[in-house]
Design goal:
about 140 residues, alpha+beta, five-stranded mixed β-sheet, 4 helices
């Protein structure tokens, strides 16, 4: 498999959106109502999140992720806000994704995942860092 991973420049998000919207809707289903597909698009268009896509040999989009980059004292975090499709299809595709994140200064990847995705991410070196809870006020 010789796929390529690319960052989608903000000026091309609207052109790319029809090809990734259905994939991203699948990830939004697991957001427990905290995020809508419209908010995902607005976050990317405002530059709060960056969109990455995985293209197959025929230049068809097979995977998509949105990433929020921010700084902590010791790390520049690439927080994956949404991921869907086959962006993590193999080690080479994931390696390309990591290289693009490093070009943006990232020193680590984080994300909130359900247990089934944790098992997938574990094969890429991820480990459970903490358990997130929420208490409505």
């Amino acid at each position: 498999m010789s796929w390529s991973v690319q960052e989608v420049p903000i000026e091309f998000v609207n052109r790319t959106w029809p090809f990734v919207e259905r994939m991203l809707e699948k990830s939004v289903r697991y957001a427990n109502g905290e995020l809508t597909i419209q908010e995902v698009k607005v976050n990317v268009l405002r530059g709060l999140d960056v969109m990455f896509i995985a293209l197959d040999e025929d230049n068809q989009i097979q995977g998509v992720a949105t990433v929020n980059l921010y700084n902590r004292t010791d790390n520049r975090v690439a927080h994956i806000t949404n991921i869907s499709g086959r962006l993590l299809a193999d080690d080479e595709t994931f390696s390309q994704f990591c290289s693009l994140l490093r070009l943006r200064g990232a020193t680590c990847i984080e994300g909130t995942v359900r247990d089934s995705l944790l098992r997938l991410w574990a094969r890429l070196g991820a480990h459970k860092k903490s358990t997130l809870i929420q208490i409505p006020l």
